[in-house]
User: Fold this.
Amino acid sequence: MILAEVESMLNTDIPTLVGGVALLFGIMLLLVRAIAGPTNYDRILAMNAIGTKTALFVALLGFITERPAFLDIALAYAILNFVGTIAILKFIRHRRLG
Amino acid sequence: MNGILLIDLILLALVLVAAVATVESRNLFAAAILSSIYSLLMACFWTSMDAVDVAYTEAAVGAGISTILLIGTLVLTGSRETVRKAVHWPALLLCLAVGSVLIFGTLDMPAFGDPNAPAQQHALYEGFTGQNILKAPGSKAAEDYEAYLATEDAAHSHDGEHAHDEHARHDYFHGHVPNQVTSVIVTYRAFDTMFETCVIFCAGIGMIVLLRGRRGNPMKGGLL
Assistant:
C-alpha cells in the first residue's frame, strides 16, 4: 500500500529505482577506492568496475524507459571498457601499444 | 519529484566528486584514471538525458583514447607533479566572471523537463524523446505522450492489418530511406557527412604520422 503510494509519487517503478540507486551507491564506493587507492592497480580496477557499472546503468535506463535497444548499447560499452582496460595495462607493462 | 530525476541528481553529485578529485590529485596517474572515471559518469548522465550518441562519444573518446594518450604522456614525462602552483587570482576572477555570464545566459531557457519547451515539442511523436517529458508528470504534453504510446501499442498488437501502414506512418522523410538515421546522414546531410569523413581521415593520417616515430629507428619515440 505504502509502496504503491511512493510509486505514484515518484512516477517510477520501485524495483528499478532501487536498482538504480544501488548501482550509484556501488559507483560511489568505487570512486572512493579510485581516489584513495594506494596503488595504481586499485585505481585501474576501480575504473574498470565503474565501466561495467556504466554498462549496467545504460541497460537499467533501457528498462526504466522501456527501450530494449539500450541493451545493445550496453554491450558496446562493455566491449569498449574491456579494450580500454587492456590498452592501459599493456601500456604500463610494455611502455608502448605495439 | 521523479525517480529518474533522483538518479540524475545522485549521478551529478558523483560527477562533481570525480571532477574535483581529478583537479586536486597530485599523483598524475591517479588524475588520468579519475578523468576517465569522470567521462564514464558523464556518459551515464548523457544517457539519462536521452543523448545516447553524445554518451557513446564521451565514453569512447573521453574514457577510451584520451586516457591512453594521457598515460602515454605520463610514460614519457613521469607521473609526479612536483610544484604546486599558488592560485592565480586574475585567472580565477576571469573564470568566475565568464561562468556567471554563462549562467545568466541560461536564465532565459525553459525550465528543466518543461514539456512546453521547443525541444520537446518538435519531435514529440517520433519516438526519440519522451524520457525527459515524463520527468514532469501531470502536464498536458506528458498525458498526450502517454496516450500516443497507448495507441502505438494498440497498433502493434495486431500487426497483420497494419503491415501496409507501417511505411506511411513513419515516413517523415518524404520518400527517402525509411531508416531515420540513414535518411538524415546520407540524404539530408550528404555533403556535410562527406566532408566530415574527409576531416576524420586527415586527422587519422596526422595521428599516425605523429605517433609512429622515426623511420629506421623504431625503438626511439612513437607510441604505435
Remarks:
- Confidence is low (pLDDT under 50) at residues 124-130, 161-171 of chain B.
- Residues 115 and 121 of chain B are 7 Å apart (CA to CA).
- The interface with chain A takes residues 1-4, 6-7, 10-11, 14, 17-18, 21, 25, 29-30, 33-34, 36-37, 40-41, 43-44, 47-48, 52, 55-56, 59-60, 63-64, 67-68, 71-72, 75, 130-131, 134, 137, 222-224 of chain B (CB under 8 Å).
- The two ends of chain B are 50 Å apart (CA to CA).
